[in-house]
Amino acid sequence: TKYVFKNIQWTTGKNFTVERGQQQIEELISTWEVHESWLHHAEFLQEEELTSSKRYHYRVCWSTPTRQKPVPRATASIYFVIEVSKIKPDTSPVEVFFTLEASRLIHRPEQCRFREKWLKDIIENKITLMERL
Q1: pLDDT at residue 4 is higher than 70
Q2: Structural contact between residues 19 and 43, judged by C-beta atoms closer than 8 angstroms
Q3: In a domain? residue 8
Q4: What is the 3-state secondary structure (H, E, C) of 16-73?
Q5: Which of 32, 1, 58 lies closest to 117 in space, CA to CA?
Q6: pLDDT of residue 7
Q7: What does the pLDDT read at residue 59?
Q8: Res. 3: pLDDT tops 70
Q9: What is the per-residue pLDDT across 66-91, written as a single tens digit (0 to 9) for each?
Q10: What does the pLDDT read at residue 102?
């Protein structure tokens, strides 16, 4: 069967605010297929001024705390960028992309199926590294 990408209706450049961007990231995450044991926290990091756009950087930190280990041994971060064009009409939707911690591969929500395994791999790699040290 063919997978149907789940995406959301992104706000326009004219209606964009830092808070709206964070709300929309949360909205996107709610469409992802992750187990309910995963908890996350989203935060705004910085605004970046470019010649033809403004980029807004966010970080979403993930973990799976349990009763036995309420403080997780490691976390996994996903970095989002919301780009507001200075060239396109302000009624155009913002551009959104994200990268996984320790990866340079850029993912676009409308072209990418998020995988819970990515989060698990990041955390497992960190734990393995800590155990070696």
Answers
A1: no
A2: no
A3: no
A4: CCHHHHHHHHHHHHCCCCCCCCCEEEEEEEEEEECCCEEEEEEEEEEECCCCCCCCCC
A5: 32
A6: 73
A7: 98
A8: no
A9: 888 888 889 999 999 999 999 999 99
A10: 86
Question: Residue 42 is part of which domain span?
Answer: 13-131
Is 6 contained in some domain?
no
AA letter at 131:
E
**Residue 41 placed within a domain:** yes
CA distances from 106 to 63, 80, 100, 102, 112 (A): 22, 10, 8, 12, 10
pLDDT (average), residues 38-57:
97
> What are the tokens at 91?
């009624």
Name residue, tokens 């989060």. 119
What's the structural domain count of the chain? 1
Going by C-beta distance under 8 Å and a sequence separation of 6 or more, which residues neighbour residue 36? Answer: none
* Residue 2 lies inside a defined structural domain of this protein: no
CA dihedral 33, 34, 39, 41 (to 10 degrees): -40
pLDDT of residue 66: 86
Three-state DSSP state, 95: strand
Q: How far apart are the first and last CA of the chain?
A: 44
Indicate the average pLDDT of the chain: 93
